[in-house]
Amino acid sequence: MGSRLRIPYDLIGSRETGAVAIVEVPEGIDPTEVAEEIRRRHPHVRSVLLKAGSREGDYRIRPLKLLAGSEQTEVIHKEHGYRIKLDPRVVYFSPRESSERQMIADLVRDGERILVMFAGVGPYAIAIAVRKEVEIVGIEINPIAVRYFQENVRLNKVGYKVFPIEGDVSFVTPAMYGKFDRVIMPLPKGAYQFIHHALRSLKKGQGIIHFYYWGGENAFSMATSLFNEKAHSMGLSATPLSMRRVSSYAPRVYKIRIDFLVRPASLT
Ligand SMILES: C[S@@+](CC[C@H](N)C(=O)[O-])C[C@H]1O[C@@H](n2cnc3c(N)ncnc32)[C@H](O)[C@@H]1O
């Protein structure tokens, strides 16, 4: 493959149970050759999938084209001592975010009640639950992702502390307002539309919200003012505890996370 060896690809799965490779091939390079090389290097790769567009729709799924190998693209991914079953052709999942999940899990304290909005196949919920004594509710709108989430709860034996719910955050959350210590909002391109639900979900208007956002060089200031505006309109104050660039989508376009400490404005 020569210089093509440097073409980046993601592996989802494991050596023991098989994996899929997801690759983006620049124009002028033969994708079939790239697929063959990946399979030569990683004999446990059963299928090679080509990125055929950007993530789209509410479910944030990327169109993927089978380049080589099996049509059966369901795998069990292993990271940090837990397993996540999924098919990348029908649900969102990114193996690149495993350290992000660990960072959040590090921040959680035993005894917390946590709401994971936009929960997908459950990687945040499971990353936390395998390490901490907590109660977690995860809400996800894609029914196939919810089925995997339920299966992943069973696979990792955390059924007594993780509770997947199928539905739209807008409709499901109001029944749970006031019940959580921490809310995680991993939907960079749309979480800002759900800030009021996250704020209302906190116990007595107090807690931590992990807010993801997507934008250019001004992403931090945009995200902070969107969040603060909503908090102030509800009589709450939001103090950023930390801010980080999680990844970059394109030159000068970033996925960021801000962790807000929320309190009633009267207490600050
Ligand atoms: C960026 S993905 C993140 C999934 C998961 N948290 C992860 O890290 O793998 C966002 C997820 O939110 C779900 N979603 C989008 N809008 C939603 C809504 N209004 N209510 C519930 N889930 C939603 C999508 O189906 C998708 O699985």
Annotate the secondary structure layout:
Layout: E1 9-14, E2 18-23, H1 31-41, E3 45-51, E4 64-69, E5 75-79, E6 82-86, H2 98-107, E7 113-116, H3 123-129, E8 135-140, H4 143-155, E9 162-166, H5 169-172, E10 182-185, H6 195-201, E11 207-215, H7 219-233, E12 236-250, E13 253-264
Parallel strand pairs: 2-3, 7-8, 7-10, 8-9, 10-11
Antiparallel strand pairs: 1-2, 3-4, 5-6, 11-13, 12-13
The structure holds S-adenosylmethionine.
Residues 58-60, 92-93, 97, 118-120, 123-124, 139-142, 145, 168-170, 186-187 line the site of S-adenosylmethionine.
Can you give a write-up of this model?
It is a single chain. By secondary structure, the protein is α/β, with parallel strands linked by helices. The protein folds into 2 domains: 2-73, GMP Synthetase, Chain A, domain 3, CATH 3.30.300; 95-267, Vaccinia Virus protein VP39 (Rossmann fold). Helices cover 25% and strands 34% of the residues. It is built from 7 helices and 13 strands. The chain has helices spanning 31-41, 98-107, 123-129, 143-155, 169-172, 195-201, 219-233; strands at 9-14, 18-23, 45-51, 64-69, 75-79, 82-86, 113-116, 135-140, 162-166, 182-185, 207-215, 236-250, 253-264. Strands 9-8-7-10-11-13-12 form a 7-stranded mixed sheet, sandwiched between helices. Strands 1-2-3-4 form a 4-stranded mixed sheet, with helices on one face. A two-stranded antiparallel sheet has the order 5-6. Helix 2 (98-107) packs across helix 3 (123-129). It is globular, with a radius of gyration of 19 Å. The N and C termini lie far apart (60 Å). The mean pLDDT is 95. It binds S-adenosylmethionine. S-adenosylmethionine binds next to helix 3, strand 8 and helix 5.
